[in-house]
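Help needed: design a sequence for this.
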């Protein structure tokens, strides 16, 4: 169909090939990837099964669900979880959501045995992120104990014989992750950190000698202030490699060496550690590493030559990786598996086969989650850098309205939906997301902002949010909208802003303290910083120390930047969506905002969802949320 015979329809009212029902059906969550022998394993969270986590085994392209129907694979350590299962050639260990117990599954018989006892109260003892010893007699993993007055994180040894006897092997730090046993079985390494730091601010790498599950001579490999380390992992000859941002970028280092393993470039070989079990580098041979790198907000696969320290691009076809990658050798070829997306392909399980020179000889998609959206209806991400407050530059992705059947009137520019990602220490990427296409295919333009504080542009950019949350992130969301309007790409008088969690806070601040947007949607967003600093879960309870300030010493800042205290400045409609089982941003945040809006008589809609936590998983929830948001924008922007 040519441009001339498209139907002329106002922006925002186009018929879309992507319905809310399709979003719900396509919202299967892909989790971690593991591999052993000739099999690849990955986790799927399925909305049609109320978000149940199912492990899929794939051999020679043939899929098999191996999780019994009465189990739901999901860990809740740090609430965000990650590394819900791990394995070796004999056993697969997984965490079941019901009680957060750890189970052993035999990879031949698929028989399931409980390795840990039922906790004292529901989900009070939680496990994840483990490693199995070379004799398959025990695992060492993270345990999070929710006691009456505190939450305790530690590393524990759990025997695989089902005796359910648990020994604590490392304790004393507020947080632990990444326990990994060396291939020779002689050493173990891990990450740990303390409040008030978040793992992208300061972490320590430790190692210890290992003898039958007992740790001796434990000592730090990295113990330096203001340095964030990531993914300490052993090479095949039991050398320890890790990422660290000594020089302002997450580069790769080897234990005992001060210089990075590669030339210092403005590229990051790590991600903010929101979840457990991410893996962004892997050894191909003694002199070659394969790594996922982020450069200027875009990701690619890189080869690192340890001899000459060169970095070369293996493939830039995939531009958005989730931090899941494994490599296994089959028939003298390296098979690389990872989770990734690009501007025209949604997140998928990808297999890439390399020849002996590490050139790609084949590539295929193993998961069957393709959106099947007509390429002509896909709006592709366009990276944009734009001026913002303080004479600085911020970044983001712009998506123009796109539909093969419709176009807007020549006299009209499209309305804009500004998206503020969560975190706030996270990043927007360019991978195909049906939730973005839901808007662009209806005639809305979308701006996905990597405001100052986002990952992917180096530590200096990431640190620009310190003490400035609710200020520079909001400035950047406004600046991107104004930049696009000045470029003649959108209607600057018809802009909305949306975000969830930390992005919801940015949204509420933008709507409360500025008069730029005509409407907004906050999904389990933060409204009261004081309440969040007291009520949040352990992992994030001190997060605000860095991005806002210490409390109660700087209580005045908390009061000034809490939208709930300044609803008198609010003059546009707000849609608020909230899960009633949210432990990260509790419902009292939304309820406080709603009460303030009621008292002021301001327009709002408030929709709650039973059985939903921090992130909506159920199909009915997803459908209702998107239909309500679409109706809200059409009412206030069109």
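Sure. Designed sequence:
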């Amino acid at each position: 169909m040519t441009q001339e015979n498209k139907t002329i329809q106002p922006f925002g009212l186009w018929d879309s090939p992507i319905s809310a029902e399709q979003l719900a059906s396509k919202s299967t969550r892909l989790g971690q990837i593991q591999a052993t022998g000739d099999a690849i394993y990955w986790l799927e969270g399925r909305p049609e099964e109320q978000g149940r986590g199912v492990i899929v085994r794939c051999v020679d392209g043939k899929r098999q669900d191996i999780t019994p129907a009465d189990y739901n694979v999901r860990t809740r350590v740090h609430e965000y979880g990650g590394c819900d299962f791990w394995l070796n050639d004999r056993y697969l260990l997984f965490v079941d959501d019901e009680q957060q117990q750890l189970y052993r599954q035999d990879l031949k018989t698929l028989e399931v045995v409980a390795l840990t006892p039922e906790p004292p109260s529901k989900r009070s003892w939680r496990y994840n992120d483990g490693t199995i010893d070379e004799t398959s007699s025990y695992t060492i993993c993270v345990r999070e104990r929710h006691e009456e007055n505190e939450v305790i994180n530690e590393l524990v040894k759990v025997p695989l014989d089902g005796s359910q006897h648990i020994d604590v092997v490392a304790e004393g730090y507020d947080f632990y992750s990444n326990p990994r046993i060396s291939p020779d079985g002689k050493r173990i390494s891990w990450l740990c950190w303390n409040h008030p730091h978040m793992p992208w601010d300061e972490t320590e790498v430790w190692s210890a000698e290992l003898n039958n599950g007992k740790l001796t001579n434990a000592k730090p490999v990295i113990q330096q202030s203001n340095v964030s380390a990531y993914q300490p992992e052993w090479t095949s000859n039991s050398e320890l490699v890790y990422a660290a941002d000594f020089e302002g970028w997450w580069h790769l280092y080897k234990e005992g060496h001060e210089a990075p393993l590669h030339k210092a470039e403005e590229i990051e070989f790590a991600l903010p550690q929101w979840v457990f079990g991410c893996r962004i580098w892997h050894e191909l041979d003694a002199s070659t590493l394969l790594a996922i790198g982020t450069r200027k907000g875009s990701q690619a696969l890189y080869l690192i030559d340890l001899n000459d320290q060169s970095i070369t691009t293996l493939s830039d076809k995939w531009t958005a990786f989730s931090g899941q990658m494994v490599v296994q050798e089959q028939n003298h070829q390296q098979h690389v598996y990872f989770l990734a997306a690009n501007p025209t392909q949604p997140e998928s399980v990808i297999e890439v086969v390399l020849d002996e020179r590490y050139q790609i000889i084949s590539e295929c998609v193993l998961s069957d989650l393709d959106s099947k959206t007509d390429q002509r209806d896909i709006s592709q991400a366009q990276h944009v850098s734009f001026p913002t407050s303080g004479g600085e530059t911020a970044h983001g992705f712009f998506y123009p309205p796109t539909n093969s059947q419709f176009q807007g009137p020549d006299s009209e520019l499209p309305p804009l939906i500004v998206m503020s990602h969560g975190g706030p220490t996270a990043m927007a990427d360019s991978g195909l997301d049906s939730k973005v296409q839901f808007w662009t295919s209806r005639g809305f333009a979308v701006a996905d902002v990597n405001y100052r504080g986002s990952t992917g542009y180096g530590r200096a950019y990431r640190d620009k949010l310190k003490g400035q949350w609710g200020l520079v992130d909001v400035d950047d969301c406004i600046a991107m909208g104004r930049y696009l309007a000045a470029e003649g790409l959108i209607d600057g008088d018809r802009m909305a802003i949306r975000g969830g969690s930390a992005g919801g806070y940015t949204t509420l601040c933008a709507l409360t303290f500025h008069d730029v947007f005509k409407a907004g949607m906050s999904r389990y967003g933060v409204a009261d910083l004081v309440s969040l600093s007291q009520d949040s879960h352990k992992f994030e309870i001190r997060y605000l120390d860095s991005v806002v300030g210490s409390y109660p010493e700087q209580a005045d800042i908390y009061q000034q930047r809490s939208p709930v205290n300044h609803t008198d400045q609010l003059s546009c409609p707000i849609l608020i969506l909230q899960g009633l089982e949210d432990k990260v941003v509790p419902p009292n945040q939304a309820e406080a905002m709603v009460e303030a809006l009621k008292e002021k008589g301001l327009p709002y809609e408030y929709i709650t969802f039973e059985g939903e936590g921090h992130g909506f998983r159920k199909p009915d929830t997803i459908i209702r949320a998107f239909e309500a948001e679409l109706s809200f924008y059409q009412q206030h922007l069109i």
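Residues 3-19+379-636 form a domain with the Rossmann fold fold (CATH 3.40.50.1820).
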